[in-house]
Specification:
Blueprint (H helix, E strand, L loop, with lengths): L6 H12 L1 H9 L6 E2 H8 L3 H13 L3 E6 L2 E6 L2 H9 L19 H4 L1 E3 L2 E3 H13 L3 E3 L4 E3 L1 H9 L13 E5 L6 E4 H13 L3 E3 L6 E3 L1 H9 L7
Antiparallel strand pairs: 1-3, 2-3, 4-5, 6-7, 8-9, 10-11
Length: 229
């Protein structure tokens, strides 16, 4: 069990998230990719020197980590717990302030997106619910595991490496647009990577949004995952 944060720790985290430029940097990294400071500065619409100061604070505060690749430095979120917190923050607001349920399917990010590196949005929730409905996963106290039937089904569909099913653990991740759970953890990441490799999903305009291709829609329907238009 993790100890509850002190008021000072909570205030420190709040101060890191309070600046719009730092918030923009964090949101640019929620997809799990590592990006250089110059690219993050452009994405946040700020000067490189300003971005450098913000990145320093985020690294010092434990929300980002630095990857040194030769002469180049890249930044990424420290872990998926950071992303989980960022995704959950909109849920603290009143329902009418969040994305309207009636329009969720019409917005690319709400329909399908990456949450850290796993599938989220309406498609992610539908995928998770289909796994549960067909008893392809079992929910433990600390993790979500594939059943033998689930391993066979996903391996047959080409969404899971052979021999990896038992080793991968997932978790339920609360989706901020749908307010229901999608599949996170290493299991969710592995499945999402294979959805992209098989071209069932495609990245959209360099953002976190994902596009469902016609073959992907057809193949997901075979797996019992059906989405209305």
């Amino acid at each position: 069990m993790h100890a509850a944060p002190t008021r000072y720790q909570l205030a420190e985290i709040g101060s890191l998230l309070a600046d719009p430029s730092r918030a923009a940097i964090l949101l640019a990294l929620v997809d799990g990719r590592a990006r250089p400071a110059g690219e993050l500065a452009r994405m946040a619409g700020i000067a490189p020197s300003t971005a450098s100061a913000h990145l320093g604070r985020l690294v010092e505060g434990g929300l980002l980590q630095v990857l040194d690749q030769g002469r180049h430095r890249y930044f990424r979120v420290a872990n998926d717990q950071v992303v989980q917190v960022l995704e959950a923050l909109p849920l603290l607001r009143a329902p009418q302030q969040c994305l309207p349920k009636s329009t969720a399917g019409t917005r690319p990010l709400a329909f399908a997106r990456t949450c850290y590196r796993h599938l989220a949005g309406r498609l992610g929730v539908a995928f998770y619910e289909a796994l549960r409905r067909q008893a392809w996963i079992e929910l433990g106290e600390q993790s979500v595991r594939l059943t033998a039937t689930g391993i066979e089904a996903l391996q047959t569909a080409g969404l899971l490496p052979h021999g990896a099913g038992q080793a991968l653990a997932g978790r339920g991740c609360l989706d901020w647009t749908e307010r229901r759970f999608h599949l996170g953890g290493s299991l969710g990441v592995a499945i999402t990577e294979h959805l992209l490799r098989r071209d069932w999903l495609r990245r959209h305009d360099g953002s976190r949004a994902l596009l469902l291709t016609p073959p992907g829609r057809s193949e997901l329907r075979r797996l019992g995952i059906v989405l209305g238009d």
